[in-house]
Amino acid sequence: MSSLYSWSRFALRTAAAAANVAGRPTKLIFIVTKRCYSRCVYCDIWKIKDAPGGLDGELSLNEVQAVAAANPFLQWIDFTGGEPTDRPDFPQVVQAFARACPDLLLVHFPTNGIATKRIAEIATEIRRTGRARLVVSVSIDGPPELNDRLRGIRNDFTHAVDTFASVRRLLGSDNAFIGMTLHGHRESCGHTTSELIEQTFAAINGALRAQAEPAIDWGDFHLNIPHLSPHYYGNTGSEAKDGFGSTAHRAEIRDALKLVATKPRNHPWSPMSAIERVYRAEAGRYLASGRTSIRCSALLSTVYLSEKGEVYPCTIWDRPLGNVRTTAFALMPIVEAARRNGVRRAVAEQKCPNCWSPCEAYPAIAASPVRSLLALSRRG
Asked: What pLDDT was estimated at residue 101?
């Protein structure tokens, strides 16, 4: 099936989501495992592997293959965790969907970047799977000392930069990114979030130059705002709750996003750059009011699948909808029931917890081109 045909189908289905036409989702957010060897202070996923029975019940490879076979309409999959590459059969998990989904266009996975050699080997193996574009984002949450403290791993910054450089050499500069989530920066010894973003960007480029690697551009540097999620991050009882909820912290992040918006980019008018601009503009609105002007597309164009087969509306709303083990691994019976039962309506009416997580925000932006243009015009 040609790439042009697949992209055309994706565009049509995205437009249908914008019109609130209840078709099949284009994007799956799949938590492949809760294994993770980071020890982030703002996320409790890493604790699950050490809890009694914490990893019990994860979908087996045979079950993952059944999920892929039962949902061949998927076109965009975020394979995440935990640390997805800590799942021993992760390449086979991705390959299952690559074989079963003829229209698959985009595969993305985030990584903590700790195990550089293994992550590069996995990316190489996944890249051989076929037509889908593979995008990898490496998490770095501050300059070296702060990053290592926030992520709980000695020399984490160094490992992450090494991994980014390795993956970028393999996939090309358009498919490797740095992701910085603005957690915990209020405790940063007197530096503002804006200052720390500048310091992080400079430190990454300093480390790359030391390896004779090309510098990153501001377009390679993605900023995310923090969120709470009982079923995903398990962080509702952590210290992240106190800082993000403060007016001062929200205002500081808004100022930082405005600063980054002024930075030069090598490809300022690329599709990804445009989506990023809308994301930042609406993130500022969300931080100020708790709302955005772009309607979430959860349960229209996106759906979330946990490592144990449970389906949720998204990464943030802790509302289990059903388990694919009861539907012969098909997503649509659960999605359609949620639509009939008013769960999708609650999302559209912003009666859910509300968020601006990239997992849901990027598809929502793609599904709302008119609202996205208006968001940019309002920003001025």
From this structure: 96
Q: Pairing relation of β-strands 310-312 and 302-305? A: antiparallel
DSSP state, residue 154: T
Ramachandran region, residue 82 (left: φ > 0; alpha: ψ -120 to 50; beta: rest): left
The model's pLDDT over 178-231, given as tens digits with 9 standing for 90+, comes to 999 987 565 555 788 899 999 999 999 999 999 999 999 999 999 998 888 999
Q: Are 335 and 248 in contact (CB under 8 A)?
A: no
| Vertex 263 angle, CA 262 and 265, to 5° | 125
- Encoding tokens for residue 170? 């393999």
> Three-class SS of residue 298?
strand
- Mean pLDDT computed over 248-262: 86
Strand partners, 106: 76, 133
Q: Give me the pLDDT at residue 240, please.
A: 44
Sign (positive or negative) of CA dihedral 307, 309, 312, 314: positive
Distances in whole angstroms, Cα of residue 239 to Cα of each of 3, 7, 244, 250: 46, 42, 9, 15
Task: Give the C-alpha separation, 5 to 77, whole Å.
Answer: 18
Measured between its terminal Cα atoms, the distance across the chain in Å is 42
Angle CA 108–116–174, to nearest 5: 40
Q: Which of 182-191, 246-255, 257-266, 330-339 has the lowest mean pLDDT?
A: 182-191
Helix (H) or strand (E) holding 345: helix 343-348
Q: Coil, strand or helix: which one is 108?
A: strand
Phi, psi of 4 (to 5 degrees): -60, -45
Using alpha carbons, select from 125, 129, 214, 225 the residue that is nearest to residue 174: 214
Q: What span, in angstroms and rounded, lies between the C-alpha atoms of 92 and 211?
A: 32
- Closest-CA residue to 95 (of 76, 58, 71, 68): 68
The continuous run of DSSP H or E covering 15 comes out as helix 3-18
- CA–CA gap between residue 357 and residue 369 (Å, rounded): 18
Cα–Cα distance between 7 and 284 in angstroms, integer? 31
* pTM of this prediction exceeds 0.85: yes
Cβ atoms 103, 3 nearer than 8 A: no
Could you write out the DSSP letters of every residue in 309-322? SEEESSSS-----E
238 vs 144 pLDDT, higher one: 144
